[in-house]
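New to this. Please check this fold:
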Amino acid sequence: MNRNKIHPQLLEIMEQRIGVLEKKPISVIVECRDPRALDGISSLVDSVVRKHRLIDAFTALVDESKIDELSNYAWVTQISFNYDRFHKTSGDIEPQLDESVPLLGAEKLWKEGYEGQGVSVGICDTEFDPKHPDLMFKEIVNLTNDSRHGTEEHGTHVSGIVAGSGKASGGKYRGLAPKVELHGFQVLDSNGGGTMSDIIEGVERAVDQGLDIINLSLGSDQPSNGEDPLSRACAEAAKRGVWVFVAAGNDGEGLIGIPAAAKGIAVCGATDKQDNVASFSSRGNTLDGRYRPTFYFPGVNIKSARAFTTGYISFSGTSMATPGGAGSAAAILSALKAKGIAKPSLARLIEAFQKTAKPLYIGGKKQPVGRAQVYEAYKDLLNAEPEPPPEPPPEPEPNNRLAVILTGLILVGLIIFALLSR
Protein backbone atom coordinates (compact mmCIF):
# COMPACT_ATOMS: atom_id res chain seq x y z
CA MET A 1 0.00 0.00 0.00
CA ASN A 2 1.17 3.51 -0.85
CA ARG A 3 -0.42 5.40 2.04
CA ASN A 4 0.69 8.74 0.56
CA LYS A 5 -1.79 8.25 -2.26
CA ILE A 6 -4.78 7.34 -0.08
CA HIS A 7 -6.67 10.30 1.38
CA PRO A 8 -6.60 10.32 5.22
CA GLN A 9 -10.41 10.14 5.37
CA LEU A 10 -10.41 6.99 3.24
CA LEU A 11 -7.65 5.47 5.38
CA GLU A 12 -9.75 6.16 8.47
CA ILE A 13 -12.78 4.44 6.92
CA MET A 14 -10.69 1.42 6.00
CA GLU A 15 -9.30 1.18 9.54
CA GLN A 16 -12.81 1.34 10.99
CA ARG A 17 -13.79 -1.65 8.86
CA ILE A 18 -10.96 -3.89 10.09
CA GLY A 19 -12.51 -7.10 11.33
CA VAL A 20 -15.73 -6.72 9.34
CA LEU A 21 -16.25 -9.98 7.49
CA GLU A 22 -18.59 -8.92 4.68
CA LYS A 23 -17.27 -5.66 3.32
CA LYS A 24 -19.19 -3.83 0.61
CA PRO A 25 -17.25 -2.04 -2.13
CA ILE A 26 -16.30 1.55 -1.29
CA SER A 27 -17.23 4.47 -3.54
CA VAL A 28 -14.00 6.31 -4.30
CA ILE A 29 -12.67 8.99 -6.63
CA VAL A 30 -9.41 7.95 -8.28
CA GLU A 31 -7.22 10.73 -9.64
CA CYS A 32 -4.50 9.91 -12.13
CA ARG A 33 -1.96 11.46 -14.43
CA ASP A 34 -3.50 9.97 -17.58
CA PRO A 35 -7.25 9.22 -17.75
CA ARG A 36 -6.62 6.79 -20.60
CA ALA A 37 -5.13 4.46 -18.00
CA LEU A 38 -8.69 3.70 -16.89
CA ASP A 39 -8.88 0.98 -19.52
CA GLY A 40 -6.02 -0.82 -17.84
CA ILE A 41 -7.63 -1.12 -14.42
CA SER A 42 -10.97 -2.69 -15.32
CA SER A 43 -10.00 -5.77 -13.34
CA LEU A 44 -9.40 -3.69 -10.20
CA VAL A 45 -12.75 -1.89 -9.95
CA ASP A 46 -16.20 -3.38 -9.55
CA SER A 47 -17.85 -0.63 -11.60
CA VAL A 48 -16.93 2.76 -12.97
CA VAL A 49 -19.71 5.17 -12.05
CA ARG A 50 -18.52 8.12 -14.16
CA LYS A 51 -15.42 9.65 -15.70
CA HIS A 52 -14.73 13.24 -14.74
CA ARG A 53 -13.69 15.95 -17.15
CA LEU A 54 -12.41 18.94 -15.19
CA ILE A 55 -9.94 16.76 -13.34
CA ASP A 56 -8.25 13.57 -14.54
CA ALA A 57 -10.30 11.27 -12.36
CA PHE A 58 -13.11 8.78 -12.23
CA THR A 59 -15.60 7.66 -9.61
CA ALA A 60 -15.83 3.90 -9.05
CA LEU A 61 -16.92 1.22 -6.64
CA VAL A 62 -13.75 -0.50 -5.49
CA ASP A 63 -13.32 -3.59 -3.38
CA GLU A 64 -11.38 -2.58 -0.27
CA SER A 65 -8.88 -5.39 -0.70
CA LYS A 66 -7.87 -3.90 -4.05
CA ILE A 67 -7.38 -0.31 -2.92
CA ASP A 68 -3.88 -1.20 -1.75
CA GLU A 69 -3.01 -2.53 -5.19
CA LEU A 70 -4.58 0.45 -6.91
CA SER A 71 -2.48 2.87 -4.85
CA ASN A 72 0.72 1.23 -6.08
CA TYR A 73 0.08 2.09 -9.73
CA ALA A 74 2.48 4.80 -10.89
CA TRP A 75 -0.20 6.79 -12.73
CA VAL A 76 -2.49 7.05 -9.69
CA THR A 77 -1.98 10.33 -7.80
CA GLN A 78 -4.74 10.19 -5.14
CA ILE A 79 -7.61 7.95 -4.04
CA SER A 80 -10.35 9.73 -2.08
CA PHE A 81 -13.55 8.60 -0.45
CA ASN A 82 -16.57 9.78 -2.45
CA TYR A 83 -17.71 11.82 0.53
CA ASP A 84 -21.48 11.49 0.86
CA ARG A 85 -22.37 14.06 3.52
CA PHE A 86 -22.43 17.31 1.59
CA HIS A 87 -25.42 19.37 2.60
CA LYS A 88 -27.28 22.59 1.94
CA THR A 89 -26.01 25.53 4.00
CA SER A 90 -29.26 27.06 5.26
CA GLY A 91 -31.79 26.84 8.05
CA ASP A 92 -35.49 27.51 8.39
CA ILE A 93 -36.18 30.75 10.01
CA GLU A 94 -37.87 37.04 7.73
CA PRO A 95 -33.29 41.29 5.54
CA GLN A 96 -35.82 40.00 2.73
CA LEU A 97 -35.08 40.40 -0.97
CA ASP A 98 -36.85 43.76 -1.01
CA GLU A 99 -34.40 44.84 1.75
CA SER A 100 -31.16 43.12 0.75
CA VAL A 101 -31.22 44.32 -2.89
CA PRO A 102 -31.19 48.05 -1.95
CA LEU A 103 -28.63 47.30 0.78
CA LEU A 104 -26.27 45.97 -1.90
CA GLY A 105 -27.00 48.75 -4.39
CA ALA A 106 -28.08 46.36 -7.15
CA GLU A 107 -31.19 48.41 -7.97
CA LYS A 108 -28.85 51.07 -9.43
CA LEU A 109 -27.84 48.56 -12.10
CA TRP A 110 -31.51 47.76 -12.72
CA LYS A 111 -32.28 51.45 -13.25
CA GLU A 112 -29.59 51.49 -15.94
CA GLY A 113 -31.28 48.52 -17.60
CA TYR A 114 -28.92 45.74 -16.46
CA GLU A 115 -30.82 42.82 -14.94
CA GLY A 116 -28.71 39.85 -15.97
CA GLN A 117 -29.73 39.66 -19.61
CA GLY A 118 -27.15 37.89 -21.77
CA VAL A 119 -25.68 36.05 -18.75
CA SER A 120 -26.08 32.35 -17.89
CA VAL A 121 -26.07 30.97 -14.34
CA GLY A 122 -25.96 27.34 -13.22
CA ILE A 123 -27.35 26.47 -9.79
CA CYS A 124 -25.98 23.24 -8.27
CA ASP A 125 -28.42 22.40 -5.50
CA THR A 126 -31.42 20.31 -4.45
CA GLU A 127 -34.47 19.79 -6.66
CA PHE A 128 -36.12 22.80 -8.32
CA ASP A 129 -39.76 23.79 -8.80
CA PRO A 130 -40.17 24.73 -12.48
CA LYS A 131 -43.80 25.77 -11.89
CA HIS A 132 -43.12 28.64 -9.49
CA PRO A 133 -44.35 31.82 -11.23
CA ASP A 134 -41.15 33.71 -10.38
CA LEU A 135 -38.77 31.27 -12.09
CA MET A 136 -38.05 30.28 -15.68
CA PHE A 137 -35.44 27.55 -16.14
CA LYS A 138 -33.79 26.80 -19.46
CA GLU A 139 -33.14 23.30 -18.13
CA ILE A 140 -33.35 21.22 -14.99
CA VAL A 141 -31.19 18.08 -14.78
CA ASN A 142 -31.23 15.56 -11.93
CA LEU A 143 -27.70 14.18 -11.46
CA THR A 144 -28.50 12.14 -8.34
CA ASN A 145 -29.97 8.67 -7.94
CA ASP A 146 -32.95 10.13 -6.06
CA SER A 147 -36.11 10.43 -8.15
CA ARG A 148 -38.36 11.63 -5.32
CA HIS A 149 -39.93 15.04 -5.78
CA GLY A 150 -41.88 17.63 -3.84
CA THR A 151 -39.94 17.61 -0.57
CA GLU A 152 -36.89 19.93 -0.86
CA GLU A 153 -37.33 23.72 -1.09
CA HIS A 154 -33.69 24.81 -0.97
CA GLY A 155 -32.85 24.85 -4.71
CA THR A 156 -35.94 26.86 -5.59
CA HIS A 157 -35.24 29.41 -2.84
CA VAL A 158 -31.61 29.84 -3.95
CA SER A 159 -32.71 30.20 -7.59
CA GLY A 160 -35.17 32.92 -6.60
CA ILE A 161 -32.41 34.97 -4.95
CA VAL A 162 -30.45 34.89 -8.20
CA ALA A 163 -33.19 35.13 -10.79
CA GLY A 164 -36.66 35.51 -9.30
CA SER A 165 -38.90 37.81 -11.35
CA GLY A 166 -41.07 38.78 -8.37
CA LYS A 167 -44.17 38.01 -10.45
CA ALA A 168 -46.06 36.40 -7.58
CA SER A 169 -45.39 39.40 -5.29
CA GLY A 170 -46.06 42.24 -7.73
CA GLY A 171 -42.29 42.72 -8.12
CA LYS A 172 -41.55 42.99 -4.39
CA TYR A 173 -39.35 39.90 -4.06
CA ARG A 174 -37.17 40.07 -7.16
CA GLY A 175 -33.84 38.34 -7.45
CA LEU A 176 -30.58 40.17 -8.09
CA ALA A 177 -30.56 39.35 -11.82
CA PRO A 178 -34.12 38.46 -12.88
CA LYS A 179 -33.32 38.21 -16.60
CA VAL A 180 -30.49 35.68 -16.52
CA GLU A 181 -30.61 32.38 -18.36
CA LEU A 182 -31.14 29.92 -15.50
CA HIS A 183 -29.91 26.31 -15.42
CA GLY A 184 -30.74 23.94 -12.56
CA PHE A 185 -28.46 20.99 -11.76
CA GLN A 186 -29.79 18.82 -8.96
CA VAL A 187 -26.76 17.45 -7.11
CA LEU A 188 -28.36 17.04 -3.65
CA ASP A 189 -31.12 14.54 -2.89
CA SER A 190 -34.60 14.94 -1.40
CA ASN A 191 -33.05 15.11 2.08
CA GLY A 192 -30.69 17.94 1.11
CA GLY A 193 -27.58 15.73 1.09
CA GLY A 194 -25.25 14.61 -1.69
CA THR A 195 -21.99 13.04 -2.83
CA MET A 196 -18.78 14.63 -4.02
CA SER A 197 -19.03 12.86 -7.37
CA ASP A 198 -22.53 14.18 -8.14
CA ILE A 199 -21.50 17.75 -7.25
CA ILE A 200 -18.42 17.54 -9.47
CA GLU A 201 -20.68 16.38 -12.30
CA GLY A 202 -22.90 19.43 -11.78
CA VAL A 203 -19.90 21.76 -12.01
CA GLU A 204 -18.69 19.93 -15.11
CA ARG A 205 -22.09 20.21 -16.81
CA ALA A 206 -22.05 23.96 -16.26
CA VAL A 207 -18.52 24.27 -17.68
CA ASP A 208 -19.32 22.00 -20.64
CA GLN A 209 -22.20 24.28 -21.58
CA GLY A 210 -20.11 27.43 -21.30
CA LEU A 211 -22.14 29.01 -18.51
CA ASP A 212 -20.88 32.31 -17.11
CA ILE A 213 -21.48 31.70 -13.39
CA ILE A 214 -21.92 28.70 -11.08
CA ASN A 215 -23.59 28.86 -7.66
CA LEU A 216 -22.92 26.18 -5.04
CA SER A 217 -24.92 26.82 -1.88
CA LEU A 218 -23.64 23.68 -0.22
CA GLY A 219 -20.80 22.50 1.92
CA SER A 220 -19.35 19.95 4.31
CA ASP A 221 -17.63 19.72 7.66
CA GLN A 222 -14.48 18.27 6.06
CA PRO A 223 -11.54 20.72 6.27
CA SER A 224 -9.32 20.83 3.21
CA ASN A 225 -6.21 22.38 1.70
CA GLY A 226 -7.99 22.74 -1.63
CA GLU A 227 -6.51 19.56 -3.08
CA ASP A 228 -9.56 17.31 -2.69
CA PRO A 229 -11.33 16.35 -5.96
CA LEU A 230 -14.31 18.72 -5.62
CA SER A 231 -12.21 21.73 -4.64
CA ARG A 232 -9.87 21.02 -7.54
CA ALA A 233 -12.82 20.81 -9.95
CA CYS A 234 -14.14 24.18 -8.74
CA ALA A 235 -10.68 25.72 -9.07
CA GLU A 236 -10.32 24.34 -12.59
CA ALA A 237 -13.72 25.77 -13.56
CA ALA A 238 -12.54 29.19 -12.36
CA LYS A 239 -9.32 28.84 -14.37
CA ARG A 240 -11.47 28.26 -17.45
CA GLY A 241 -13.20 31.60 -16.99
CA VAL A 242 -16.29 30.61 -15.01
CA TRP A 243 -17.19 32.76 -12.00
CA VAL A 244 -17.61 30.17 -9.24
CA PHE A 245 -19.51 31.23 -6.08
CA VAL A 246 -19.49 28.88 -3.08
CA ALA A 247 -21.03 29.10 0.39
CA ALA A 248 -18.53 29.55 3.23
CA GLY A 249 -20.51 27.21 5.48
CA ASN A 250 -22.55 27.54 8.67
CA ASP A 251 -20.02 26.37 11.26
CA GLY A 252 -18.91 29.72 12.72
CA GLU A 253 -15.23 30.38 13.39
CA GLY A 254 -12.86 27.53 12.56
CA LEU A 255 -11.37 25.55 9.71
CA ILE A 256 -12.97 25.88 6.28
CA GLY A 257 -14.54 22.85 4.62
CA ILE A 258 -15.03 21.49 1.12
CA PRO A 259 -15.64 23.08 -1.39
CA ALA A 260 -15.14 26.54 0.15
CA ALA A 261 -11.46 25.59 0.53
CA ALA A 262 -11.02 25.58 -3.26
CA LYS A 263 -8.36 27.90 -4.65
CA GLY A 264 -9.21 30.92 -6.78
CA ILE A 265 -12.98 30.96 -6.23
CA ALA A 266 -15.46 33.39 -4.62
CA VAL A 267 -16.56 32.31 -1.14
CA CYS A 268 -19.53 34.06 0.46
CA GLY A 269 -20.11 34.66 4.14
CA ALA A 270 -23.42 35.90 5.57
CA THR A 271 -24.45 39.16 7.25
CA ASP A 272 -27.75 40.54 8.55
CA LYS A 273 -29.38 43.79 7.39
CA GLN A 274 -27.54 45.75 10.11
CA ASP A 275 -24.24 44.52 8.61
CA ASN A 276 -23.44 42.24 11.52
CA VAL A 277 -21.57 39.07 10.61
CA ALA A 278 -23.96 36.18 11.19
CA SER A 279 -22.79 34.10 14.13
CA PHE A 280 -23.21 30.90 12.11
CA SER A 281 -21.21 32.13 9.10
CA SER A 282 -18.00 30.11 8.68
CA ARG A 283 -14.81 32.15 8.82
CA GLY A 284 -11.22 31.12 9.23
CA ASN A 285 -8.43 29.38 7.36
CA THR A 286 -8.17 26.43 5.06
CA LEU A 287 -5.74 23.68 6.06
CA ASP A 288 -3.03 25.43 4.06
CA GLY A 289 -3.65 28.82 5.69
CA ARG A 290 -5.84 30.73 3.19
CA TYR A 291 -8.54 32.92 4.76
CA ARG A 292 -12.21 32.45 3.89
CA PRO A 293 -14.69 33.95 3.06
CA THR A 294 -13.56 36.27 0.28
CA PHE A 295 -16.43 38.69 1.10
CA TYR A 296 -19.90 38.84 2.70
CA PHE A 297 -23.44 39.20 1.34
CA PRO A 298 -26.77 39.37 3.21
CA GLY A 299 -27.79 35.90 4.31
CA VAL A 300 -30.06 36.25 7.35
CA ASN A 301 -33.83 35.89 6.98
CA ILE A 302 -33.88 36.16 3.19
CA LYS A 303 -37.36 35.79 1.69
CA SER A 304 -37.46 34.14 -1.73
CA ALA A 305 -39.53 31.74 -3.84
CA ARG A 306 -41.06 28.82 -1.98
CA ALA A 307 -41.14 25.52 -3.88
CA PHE A 308 -44.43 23.80 -4.72
CA THR A 309 -46.42 26.96 -3.92
CA THR A 310 -46.87 30.34 -5.57
CA GLY A 311 -45.55 32.11 -2.48
CA TYR A 312 -42.37 32.81 -0.53
CA ILE A 313 -40.44 31.64 2.51
CA SER A 314 -37.53 32.98 4.58
CA PHE A 315 -34.29 31.05 5.10
CA SER A 316 -30.99 32.00 6.68
CA GLY A 317 -27.52 30.72 5.89
CA THR A 318 -24.49 31.23 3.71
CA SER A 319 -26.65 29.37 1.17
CA MET A 320 -28.65 32.60 0.90
CA ALA A 321 -25.58 34.86 0.82
CA THR A 322 -24.00 32.93 -2.06
CA PRO A 323 -26.76 33.49 -4.66
CA GLY A 324 -26.70 37.12 -3.53
CA GLY A 325 -23.10 37.13 -4.74
CA ALA A 326 -23.78 35.13 -7.90
CA GLY A 327 -26.83 37.22 -8.80
CA SER A 328 -24.96 40.47 -8.19
CA ALA A 329 -22.11 39.23 -10.37
CA ALA A 330 -24.62 38.36 -13.10
CA ALA A 331 -26.06 41.90 -13.05
CA ILE A 332 -22.52 43.36 -13.24
CA LEU A 333 -21.53 41.04 -16.09
CA SER A 334 -24.72 41.96 -17.96
CA ALA A 335 -23.70 45.62 -17.79
CA LEU A 336 -20.12 44.93 -18.88
CA LYS A 337 -21.26 42.84 -21.83
CA ALA A 338 -23.70 45.55 -22.93
CA LYS A 339 -20.81 48.03 -22.95
CA GLY A 340 -18.60 45.69 -24.98
CA ILE A 341 -16.20 45.12 -22.09
CA ALA A 342 -14.55 41.69 -21.96
CA LYS A 343 -15.45 39.48 -19.02
CA PRO A 344 -12.89 40.07 -16.27
CA SER A 345 -11.22 37.16 -14.53
CA LEU A 346 -12.80 35.93 -11.32
CA ALA A 347 -9.71 37.15 -9.48
CA ARG A 348 -10.38 40.67 -10.80
CA LEU A 349 -14.04 40.48 -9.80
CA ILE A 350 -13.09 39.37 -6.27
CA GLU A 351 -10.59 42.24 -6.09
CA ALA A 352 -13.31 44.75 -7.07
CA PHE A 353 -15.72 43.41 -4.44
CA GLN A 354 -13.01 43.48 -1.78
CA LYS A 355 -11.67 46.97 -2.62
CA THR A 356 -15.14 48.53 -2.44
CA ALA A 357 -16.59 46.47 0.43
CA LYS A 358 -18.07 48.00 3.55
CA PRO A 359 -15.85 47.16 6.56
CA LEU A 360 -17.26 44.72 9.11
CA TYR A 361 -16.45 44.31 12.80
CA ILE A 362 -16.89 41.59 15.39
CA GLY A 363 -16.46 42.74 18.98
CA GLY A 364 -14.78 45.92 17.75
CA LYS A 365 -12.26 43.97 15.67
CA LYS A 366 -12.18 44.71 11.96
CA GLN A 367 -12.66 41.60 9.85
CA PRO A 368 -10.25 40.65 7.03
CA VAL A 369 -12.99 41.14 4.42
CA GLY A 370 -16.16 43.22 4.23
CA ARG A 371 -19.71 43.21 2.92
CA ALA A 372 -19.89 43.64 -0.84
CA GLN A 373 -21.30 46.80 -2.40
CA VAL A 374 -22.43 45.85 -5.88
CA TYR A 375 -22.62 49.17 -7.69
CA GLU A 376 -19.30 50.34 -6.26
CA ALA A 377 -17.64 47.11 -7.42
CA TYR A 378 -19.15 47.63 -10.87
CA LYS A 379 -17.74 51.18 -11.05
CA ASP A 380 -14.33 49.85 -10.00
CA LEU A 381 -14.41 47.38 -12.89
CA LEU A 382 -15.43 50.16 -15.28
CA ASN A 383 -12.72 52.57 -14.20
CA ALA A 384 -9.84 50.16 -13.94
CA GLU A 385 -7.25 49.70 -16.61
CA PRO A 386 -7.90 46.63 -18.77
CA GLU A 387 -6.21 43.49 -17.56
CA PRO A 388 -2.88 42.96 -19.30
CA PRO A 389 -2.71 39.97 -21.64
CA PRO A 390 -0.99 36.92 -20.23
CA GLU A 391 2.77 36.90 -20.48
CA PRO A 392 3.98 35.00 -23.56
CA PRO A 393 5.87 31.82 -22.81
CA PRO A 394 9.60 32.42 -22.43
CA GLU A 395 11.77 31.81 -25.42
CA PRO A 396 13.62 28.52 -25.15
CA GLU A 397 17.14 28.89 -23.86
CA PRO A 398 19.59 28.57 -26.73
CA ASN A 399 22.11 25.80 -26.60
CA ASN A 400 25.11 27.61 -25.10
CA ARG A 401 27.68 25.34 -26.70
CA LEU A 402 26.14 25.81 -30.13
CA ALA A 403 26.02 29.58 -29.61
CA VAL A 404 29.73 29.66 -28.77
CA ILE A 405 30.59 27.63 -31.89
CA LEU A 406 28.49 29.85 -34.16
CA THR A 407 29.97 33.01 -32.68
CA GLY A 408 33.45 31.63 -33.25
CA LEU A 409 32.73 30.74 -36.86
CA ILE A 410 31.39 34.23 -37.52
CA LEU A 411 34.52 35.82 -36.04
CA VAL A 412 36.78 33.54 -38.11
CA GLY A 413 34.80 34.47 -41.23
CA LEU A 414 35.18 38.16 -40.52
CA ILE A 415 38.94 37.80 -40.01
CA ILE A 416 39.38 35.86 -43.28
CA PHE A 417 37.27 38.45 -45.11
CA ALA A 418 39.40 41.26 -43.72
CA LEU A 419 42.68 39.54 -44.80
CA LEU A 420 41.41 38.90 -48.33
CA SER A 421 40.32 42.48 -48.67
CA ARG A 422 43.89 43.85 -48.22
About this structure: Confidence is low (pLDDT under 50) at residues 92-97, 395-404. DSSP finds eleven helices and 21 strands in the chain. The first strand starts at residue 26 and ends at 32.
